[in-house]
Design a protein that fits this description.
Structural class: alpha+beta
CATH superfamily of the largest domain: Bira Bifunctional Protein, Domain 2
Bound molecules: adenosine-5'-triphosphate, magnesium ion
Number of domains: 2
Strand order of the largest sheet: 1-5-6-11-10-9-7-8
Radius of gyration: 28 Å
Low-confidence stretches: none
Oligomer: single chain
Strand content: 15-25%
Number of helices: 16
Mean pLDDT: 94
Helix content: 25-40%
Distance between the termini: 45 Å
């Protein structure tokens, strides 16, 4: 029997962990800088939550969910995204009683049954933020700024920010109508998938990954030409706020992209995406937008919200592509090398060193040479060598593996060796 990991999943091996450390640590740091607090929701939820909260017309609900009947007869789905769960938690935990807006972030695995390819997998990870309970465009600008700063702090260059406004649901009918008319006029030139989409959700045709459709979509009616009233005012204020972001972030820029809609049905007003300049269809790093109708759809009281989700696999791909440095994980302070019958003394010493907060690894009981090779392979800073003679005399030989490679005899005592390792600055 030869087991393999499921298609579209990955083993994240120790050598790759520095990249994951970087995207998680930077996410935590930036979220904290903006006052966003962490929330963790369950990995699985009631299937209805996503059918309602993500929308029946979306690719996610149509064909990408991992759903199953659990042993109790409930329909359960592994979460395909984070926003519906966060909103469910907001409602269930009465967060509308907290001072608004409530600023939250999450970093977690998501599951979608998709055709695996570079940047598109079945278990992936997102860093997401949600600002719930404030309808004002200042919050939109803040969330966009947060995404910008996250990418900038990761060191990723040449990312474009595209934004659009979908207006409000009430005002959208005219737009959808004209959009529908426009695409029906060129329906023969659309691939089959987009002809089907047009029947179900004309807006989603704009989002098509088919090149033929994209060219046609460029000339389609523009949502921002249809928005009126408060939605229009919101959009105009947002553009000014974004222009003002240049004062704090001289590199900041954005383009208005009329083709930008979100794959999820609950978005209104502001939508945005961050994409590397040379992105293909798996390129979007961060995608987000406002979802004022969502809380109501989920049975909560009407509460505005805006957020984004960034794909960590894609951000890591970009870190690697741009050859950005990550901190290599540090090796242990000490590898204990034992010879002859010193094995148990070595083991006791290792425990004593760890108790004193010196990271310590035991070399396997093999030849001196093999043990030294092992110490080097672990990037150890020091080796402590114990043989029968050392144990008898109550001393240990401590050798630095750093430059110079000084070697000293130290009393065979965890406190003394810990002190020595610290004082030589090799800890
Ligand atoms: P796409 O159009 O690429 O399928 P989407 O609209 O389905 O994206 P969202 O649901 O908005 O994506 O998710 C936000 C981000 O999560 C994406 O921009 C991407 O970085 C990441 N992401 C989404 N699906 C996957 C996946 N299957 N594998 C890896 N990352 C993903
Ligand atoms: Mg998708």
């Amino acid at each position: 029997m030869n087991f393999k990991r499921p298609r579209g999943t990955a083993d994240i091996l120790p050598d790759d962990q520095p990249y994951w450390g970087k995207v998680y640590n930077t996410a935590r740091k930036v979220a904290h800088q903006f006052g966003y607090r962490r929330i963790d929701t369950p990995t699985f939820e009631d299937t209805n939550l996503f059918e309602r909260g993500v929308g029946n017309e979306t690719d996610i609900v149509q064909k990408e969910m991992y759903s199953f009947d659990d042993h109790g007869g409930d329909m359960i789905t592994l979460r395909p995204e984070g926003t519906a769960s966060v909103c469910r938690a907001y409602i269930e935990n009465g967060m509308h009683n907290l001072p608004q807006p409530v600023r939250l972030f999450y970093a977690a695995a998501m599951f979608r049954y998709e055709r695996p390819q570079a940047g598109r997998v079945r278990q992936f990870h997102q860093f997401g933020v949600e600002a719930i309970g404030d309808p004002s465009p200042e919050v939109d600008a803040e969330v966009i700024e947060l995404g910008w700063k996250y990418i900038a702090d990761l060191g990723i260059k040449d990312v474009t920010l595209r934004i659009n406004s979908l207006g409000d649901a009430e005002g959208r009918a005219d737009y959808i109508n004209d959009l529908d008319k426009y695409f029906l006029g060129v329906v023969d030139q659309l691939p089959k998938v987009d002809q089907d989409r047009l029947k179900r959700a004309p807006l989603r045709v704009l989002d098509s990954k088919a090149r033929e459709t994209q060219a046609l979509a460029d000339a389609a009616p523009k949502s921002v030409d249809y928005i009126t009233g408060e939605a229009k005012e919101h959009w105009e204020v947002l553009l000014v706020l974004l222009d003002n972001l240049k004062q704090a972030y001289p590199d900041f820029s954005y383009t208005v992209d009329h083709r930008l809609v979100r794959g999820l049905d609950y978005y209104n007003r502001t939508v945005f995406e961050f994409e590397p300049a040379d992105a293909g269809s798996q390129g979007t790093l961060i995608a987000g937008g406002r979802y004022d109708p969502l809380m109501g759809i989920l049975g909560g009281q009407e509460t505005p919200g805006i957020g984004f989700a960034g794909g960590l696999e894609r951000l890591i791909m970009e870190l690697k592509k741009q050859e950005l440095p990550v901190k290599a994980s540090k090796g242990p302070d000490v590898v204990v090398v034992t010879l002859g019958d010193a094995g148990s003394a070595g083991s006791t010493l290792a425990a004593g060193l760890r108790a004193k907060d010196i990271s310590t690894v035991l070399a396997p009981k093999r030849s001196m040479k093999a043990q030294m090779r092992y110490a080097n392979s672990q990037n150890a800073l020091n080796v402590v060598i114990l043989g029968d003679r050392e144990v008898e005399n109550g001393v240990a030989s401590v050798k630095s593996l750093g430059e110079g490679g000084a070697q000293s005899e130290v009393t065979l005592d965890a406190a003394a060796i810990a002190e020595h390792v610290r004082s030589t600055g090799n800890q």
